[in-house]
Design goal:
mainly alpha; Vanadium-containing Chloroperoxidase, domain 2; two-stranded antiparallel ribbon; two-stranded antiparallel sheet; 19 helices; about 40% helix; globular
Length: about 550
């Protein structure tokens, strides 16, 4: 194989090639004023005096050498996998489980053999418990050819089983399960929201946003990013109409019936751990705007990877000027766009709609690869659904686990038991959690990456015109008359909504969200460094605000 040329090794056709195509098009063209035929001029424009092929080679090798020179990543899981032989805090859904919800050791060993080897044959030999399949585990071993190799990105260890941080995160999830049908517009007056805020304020290690040291109705169930507490709970990019090509549509969604939760009885919970098929979802016959957490959870149940951020870009294209070279018009493009004030050029293939939408898709793939590496090869954190089974068995005296007192003493446990007759974490989806580990959230990682691309290309200080807020029944959008909302704040709020939407469903922990957002941001920063080198226009770098509020410049030459 190594004796073959690149085209042959890739299985590509070698004829007709570019030269053949140009020659056939130009034919016996007349000689122009430069003394060259059209075919000769075309070849000169492509290759150039500096040898185009060599420049392309140097660009790729230089990028690879830059990343190869970085220190090797040293990953640190939280140690629970070694501490607990029964793997109580490790993801094992779809594998065979005993009656206590613990994975069978031989099945766990077969999973670890595949994870360690990366071989397809070993993944095909994993001992499974039912018809459900693991979600793309071998993707953890895949490569990306732009930006930093995803295996070189690091995350903090996930909270440990017995920690007050994990206890506080589970308390938050229980309250979220009880508050799914509370309209966002009624948070300030709702008793469940008030009780959740008071309980989370009592936690010894709750790391969500606070006001004056306490969780409040204006901070509860938010990511805590700059701008995500300003205005309505829901980002304008999930509320405003979307112009997609010649079609413009509102954002009413097919949602699910109120009050319907899943896996609240122990037999159904245990069957889900063993990989049994899920029941069908119960739909609401009425289309609605997203007005509560159940709607938001269903949105992130059905979306594709970068959908929310593509919609945001389409809204911004519509709000501003699609042609960044037309001066004097309203524009949403940031000053990073080097063609913004060009006398003769307008952005399109570069610095325009195709460029930005393409980058959103590309960084979303890289973000998933980074997340899947952490999920399967490093942390393998159990889902909240699995932890809920341990809480139930502990509280019903079927087993004893080192669950922190902050959770055992929380009033949320009685509220949950009074509602459903168990201490299980009610799931918003019939299948419960997806069949891949919790840490980090894929939605959060993709959100962090895509939002970073949006902030690199759009004005963060642009004021959203005519903002709206959904009515409590979700049947209409009404004008929002509060303080102005900026693009940067609403992009951050979109990240918060999409990431915590998965928490609302009961399938992710807060740290899956918060650390996933950071991971995605780093994926995008390293990718933008490579993307910036591809432009032929004079370009100094992307400047934008990170999620921690600091400004960064991503320079293609540094």
């Amino acid at each position: 194989m190594y004796g073959l040329g690149v085209s042959e090794r890739l299985g590509l056709m070698t004829k007709p090639n570019r030269r053949h195509f140009l020659t056939s098009v130009a034919g016996a063209a007349t000689v122009g004023s430069t003394g060259l035929t059209l075919s000769q001029r075309a070849r000169a424009a492509i290759s150039g005096p500096a040898n185009r092929k060599q420049r392309a080679y140097d660009l790729r090798v230089g990028a690879a050498e830059y990343f190869r020179a970085m220190p090797d990543a040293k990953h640190h899981p939280n140690g629970d996998e070694e501490l607990y032989p029964d793997k109580r805090n490790s993801f094992a859904k779809t594998l065979p489980h005993d009656e206590m919800g613990m994975v069978r050791q031989d099945a766990w060993d077969s999973l670890m053999k595949a994870v360690d080897s990366g071989r397809t044959a070993d993944y095909e030999s994993i001992l499974m418990g039912g018809s459900a399949k693991l979600v793309s585990p071998q993707a953890a071993h895949s490569f990306n050819l732009e930006g930093l190799d995803t295996h070189q990105l690091l995350m903090r260890p996930a909270p440990v089983f017995a920690s007050p941080e994990q206890a506080a995160e589970m308390v938050e999830l229980y309250w979220q399960s009880l508050a799914r049908d509370v309209p966002f517009a009624e948070y300030e007056t709702n008793d469940t929201i008030r009780a959740a805020a008071e309980d989370l304020s009592r936690m010894s290690d709750f790391r969500g946003p606070k006001a004056g040291g306490r969780v409040t109705a204006s901070t509860v169930f938010r990511a805590g990013l700059p701008g995500d507490r300003e205005g309505p709970y829901l980002s304008q990019f999930l509320a405003m109409p979307v112009a997609s090509g010649a079609t413009k549509y509102d954002q009413k969604i097919r949602t699910v019936a109120a009050g319907v939760d899943y896996l609240t009885a122990y037999p159904a919970f245990l069957n889900a751990q063993r990989g049994s098929a899920a029941s069908q979802v119960t739909l609401d016959p009425v289309a609605r705007y997203i007005r509560n957490a159940r709607d938001l959870a269903e949105w992130v149940h059905r979306d594709y990877s970068y959908q929310a951020f593509l919609n945001a870009a389409l809204i911004l294209f519509e709000l501003g000027d699609k042609n960044p070279g037309a001066l004097g018009e309203v524009r949403t493009f940031s000053d990073n766009n080097v063609l913004l004030y060009s006398r003769n050029q307008a952005g399109f293939v570069t610095w325009g709609v195709p460029d930005i939408t393409d980058l959103l898709a590309r960084v979303s793939k890289f973000a998933f690869q980074a997340a899947w590496c952490q999920k399967w090869l490093v942390h393998r954190r159990a889902r909240p659904e699995e932890f809920g089974g341990h809480v139930h068995n502990h509280m019903t005296a079927r087993a004893t686990y080192p669950i922190h007192a902050d959770l055992q003493n929380s009033p949320v446990l009685k509220a949950v038991h009074d509602k459903q007759g168990s201490y299980l974490l009610a799931q918003a989806f019939p299948e419960g959690t997806p069949a891949h580990p919790a840490y980090p959230s894929g939605h959060a990682t993709v959100s962090g990456a895509c939002a970073t691309v949006l902030k690199a290309f759009f004005r963060e200080d642009f004021i959203i015109p005519n903002p709206v807020i959904a009515s409590s029944d979700g049947l209409e959008m009404r004008p929002y008359l509060g303080a102005p909302l900026t693009v940067g704040g609403e992009i951050n709020k979109l990240v918060s909504n999409i990431a915590i939407g998965r928490d609302w469903a009961g399938i992710h922990w807060r740290t899956d969200m918060s650390e996933g957002i950071k991971l995605g941001e780093e994926v995008a920063i390293q990718s933008l460094r490579d993307f910036g080198k591809q432009y032929s226009e004079d370009f100094g770098g992307f400047t934008f605000n990170r999620f921690d509020g600091t400004e960064i410049m991503v320079c293609p030459g540094c």
